[in-house]
Amino acid sequence: MHFDVERRTVAGRSVLTVRGELDLATAPQLRDAVEEALAGSARDVVVDLTPTAFLDSSGARTLISVARTAVGAGAVLHVVAPTANTAVRLTIDLLDLGAYVPVVGSVGEIPTGIAGRDAGT
């Protein structure tokens, strides 16, 4: 299956949309994309798993790792994973990923306290 990380900026946040399977083979590509976003001007990073077909435990570990990297850079990383994407949500819920990384069902659910930093943009 084809894997891709689409990069765009929305309201001062770097949004990384993951397509394909996020697993042991592809997780390094996501790590590189997050690190690149943090090295740029991104204050916050959103990893959108809406179109992601599969997430394994190594992909989940990578999400935890890049969330910690974001915190170290003074940013916040949010993971978007709609409940309708059962292939991804199963892994997120089984591993209780939300205890380590902010997980929301849509971009609109990202807390306004973080979005409030974008008010001047």
Structure in words:
The protein is an alpha/beta fold and 121 residues long. The protein has helices spanning 27-39, 57-72, 86-94, 112-115; strands spanning 4-10, 13-22, 44-48, 52-55, 76-80, 103-104. Strands 1, 2, 3, 4, 5 and 6 form a six-stranded mixed beta sheet that branches. The longest helix is centred in the middle third of the chain and has 16 residues, at 57-72. The model is unreliable at 114-121 (pLDDT under 50).
Layout of strands and helices, then pairs:
Blueprint: E1 4-10, E2 13-22, H1 27-39, E3 44-48, E4 52-55, H2 57-72, E5 76-80, H3 86-94, E6 103-104, H4 112-115
Parallel strand pairs: 2-3, 2-4, 3-5, 5-6
Antiparallel strand pairs: 1-2
Helix pairs in contact: 1-2
